[in-house]
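Q: Protein A?
A:
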Amino acid sequence: MAAVRASVAARRLTRRFLSSFFSSPSAGSASASRTLLGHFHHPTSTARPVLVRSASAPVFQPLSAGSPRLSLDFLSADAATSEFSLFDSHVGLLLLLKATDAGPRFLVCDPVSRRHALLPSLPAAAFSDGEFLSAALLSRAAGSGLEFRAVCLTVQADRLRLWLAWSGDGEVSWLGLPPSRDFRVKWPLSWSEKRCVRAAGSLYWHISNNDSVLALDPNTLRLSYLRAPAVIWDDLGFPNYRIGETPGDGRLCFAALDSQVLRLCARGAGGDDGWVLEREVSLVEEFDALTNLPMACPWLGNIDPGRTGKVFIRTFGHGHFSYDMDTGKLDRLTTDDGQEYGHPIFAYFSAPDGGSS
């Protein structure tokens, strides 16, 4: 009987959580009103092994001379340095993560208003028989200051479990949903990328050596798999593909870089499940003109979540690059002090209501 009452209570709280989510601006309206201000990342040296996480503090790269000069210097010393790392960016907020022996700790902050909140530790049940997979911001109430919704994903055996967090009246609470019944984890957790990609209204996680990505619908909290289009996957074997949005209309798209040939395909404009190959271009000449980069080194980092029409390209020991698919220009991503942009690079937009205060 106690288990039944707990299940009913969980369903009621979940409905409350989803109801509060729907009261926030929708993904479409947010996209229409938000403004790209720049990108956050952890800068790193080009001499550093590319797969080793940088210990540097997060920095902000303004999009233009007119963009605000933001920083996280308002956070406590451990959060503003290497203790916390960037984990997600959404609706004018940043989600930062600190790994501890007892599980991850999360901090949410607004770099514009300089408000921040340290989330309480997840319940012990989250890690007593489960492993941390990921976390993400879901929504923010318009004009609320720092009222937000977030989700943490853990895995128990082959079942995913969602832990929901929401803030209100200066407090943050966690709600654990039952492990998924109709969705199974079909890959080793070590293959999963911890940070999500936000595209076309859903959240996605890339899985190494896999032809599908993990998807979460933030409106219904439904989990599913989305297979990469055949034009990206089938004839390339196991390419490094990435998911994102087309810059003009925000359609879901996939891109792959193999043998320095960049392919990008997007969901059909009619909204069906068909995929259309929109770009296929060789970058050999671009790399030859810019550097003595060995042919086998580049791989795709991400499609710019800022919808600038660029993709980010990573290399072993040769730096980090951006390629503009409209102009064909390849640029080295370096900071003013000679370091390079770290991976991942988080696009930072203004809040959906046009501000963050």
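Q: Protein B?
A:
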Amino acid sequence: MANATATAGMVSPHVPGMHAGGRDMARLGMVRCWRRARRGKVMCAAPPSSVNGDVLMGNDVSKPRRLPRVVGMGSKLIGCGSAVPKFEISNDDMAEIVETSDEWISVRTGIHKRRVLTGEESVKGLAIEAGKKALEMAHVEPDEVDLVILCTSTPDDLFGTGAQVHTALGCKNAWAFDATAACSGFLVGLITATRFIKGGGYKNVLVIGADSLSRYVDWTDRGTCILFGDGAGAVLVQATAAEEDGFLGFDVHSDGQGYRHLNAKTSVGGTEEVIPSTNGSINFPPKKPAFSFIQMNGKEVFRFAVSSVPRSIVASLEEAGLTNSDIDWLLLHQANWRIIDAVATRLQIPSEKIISNLANYGNTSAASIPLALDEAVRGGKVKGGDIIAASGFGAGLTWGSAIMRWQ
């Protein structure tokens, strides 16, 4: 770049096509540059290298930030809570349902038991219980909450359950909505909460992950039914001064090309007789809508997770200005121990720094990260000031990570 003076990775040349105060970027060789809005300086960064050279479906390489994050209020995690159904199914119980064994399941997944909704229990009920516990730990009254985000792919109502949860909790001054991103849901909700705080002036945001995938598994398919359990977890995210920000960096992605490897499609049939007024259409009116069982290509999902997740965490660490050695705890979506172990190995994080309760609950989807976090906090493992690298990944395909400091 002619006539450019570089200092600490920042240059101040005139770059054609880059408008002052705009969001335009230019690619110059292997360097990506952009002009910071209202500051007249051009920022440049080289794309990060991949982890072990792996490339999966789509363009899933974590790229440099398009623009620096907007400066505003910071966020901190000050409370957490969780809830699980009463009914427990062990691997030995599973062996009575499908052709399997405790050894077959535990060796391949790390799971020994899981909890499943029965009777009068519901996703709503689990979410309410987890939310109450988070508010109690945070010493925040329900009417002090500004927003409730229910992260779920299995709401009790097609139109969402978040508003019912926030009303039951007594968050009368808040509004609520559901966020659906499968097993990445909680991470998406957490990032969304920090953006409402940073850019919207919100003070207290309750983020709840709750799912009941047991409703959507084929209990005759040992490849999927052994994996999933039900549960809920919640955190209270509170505004703080920018210099005390505990949400240090994040990275998120999605790739629809991987949809075929993990999905639960809607299934709508036609009527047996053609109705005269439909102009001969055999698909109207449709039959009662339903979802198919969860369909998963385990090998492809494994490849996706162990290649994409480490790259995402590295990108989040770079934004936070930290390295692997700064991580106190690695908290991944609890899908399969082999995935967790492979990601930790690639990041060179020792096993004693891994938070996992997979053995007791299986894959609880959007609930898995906050459920594991709550147990680690209440068990005295996670302490104030600890740096946590969290990552969610799953159907969509979606994945991402966040670097955060507990309290």
